[in-house]
Amino acid sequence: xxxxxxxxxxxxxxxxxxxxxxxxxxxxxxxxxxxxxxxxxxxxxxxxxxxxxxxxxxxxxxxxxxxxxxxxxxxxxxxxxxxxxxxxxxxxxxxxxxxxxxxxxxxxxxxxxxxxxxxxxxxxxxxxxxxxxxxxxxxxxxxxxxxxxxxxxxxxxxxxxxxxxxxxxxx
Length: 171
Ligand SMILES: [Fe+2]
Ligand SMILES: [Fe+2]
Known about the structure:
171 residues
């Protein structure tokens, strides 16, 4: 996981706010996936001493807890997606307004990453298995934050300083 506090800031404050939100969303998703995984792996313990009725109640509770976790993961993935759509829209509006020369390449990269995120999201909609939890865990803790950090220190930094130099507000 990557913490926003440990990442370089860009020249426009609205972008820093969007980046903080993105790292927070990804970290919250990773924590939720960890707890869902622990529940799937260790939740179905069931002591051999419990009687049949006890077993039934326990299994029913596990199914409900598991469903609750799946719903929460779904909600967080939707939040990450809608926050990312907003994050990219704000940057693209700003690039357009100030005529940033490389806005085509920058927006294209946003589109690519948004499609990647939608694909990850649809994996979860199709199959809430342990394999998917593991896959999404790597996405939330490693692949997406690493992409974001790299994007911030390259494309976003260049764009923010250009817009800032051309009179863009830092708010
Ligand atoms: Fe950004
Ligand atoms: Fe960007």
